[in-house]
Design goal:
It is built from six helices and ten strands, in the order βαββαβαββαβαβββα. The chain is α/β, with parallel strands linked by helices. It has a single domain, classed as Alpha-Beta Barrel (TIM Barrel).
Length: 210
Amino acid sequence: MNGLNLKIKVCGMKHQQNVDELLELGVDYLGNIFYDQSPRSISQTGVKLTVNPAKKVGVFVKESIDVVKEKVKLHQFDVVQLHGADSNEICKQVKELGIEVWRVCPITNGYDFSELQKFPDADYFLFDTKTEKHGGSGKKFDWSLLQRIDKESPKKYFLAGGIGPIDAKEIKSLQLEKLYGLDLNSKFEIEPGLKNVELLKEFLNELRAS
């Protein structure tokens, strides 16, 4: 796959200056986490980040639709990313707000791919490594599953989970028709919530090179 075609999301943003630096790299999505158990959470900080022209993603873990609606209105999210969404109903309710919804699928070797049919209102899936922390673990799942994911997924999807600076070459070699984008986080950090701009720049340059 040509890396030029992949959308890039950087998750766990907490600082406006860091956001501004990443916007210069041409990232497509920037994520804010609302999960108190994450060191990248902004739910208790009152921070409101401006991410134009990138799209702004609100990341929620097993959250009520009322809280999601409140945060969408306050932060003007373009996308809501849902961890722990056990039914399509919350996806449907988010869609009714007029924004995109991504459903996170925590992957293990025994993942039940029939689950993917239960979320018709999700715009995209995001395949991440299953952990108790719901993302940001820096751990990959078994990428030998990617061919099956590509076959079984009824939607285009983002790849997440431990993607790091050394992975650009392998990602470029993947032959996956439905892979839409990459979700980058902990492997590109100076500390939780603060991204290493130079590392990201080098990775994206390699990914985008012909």
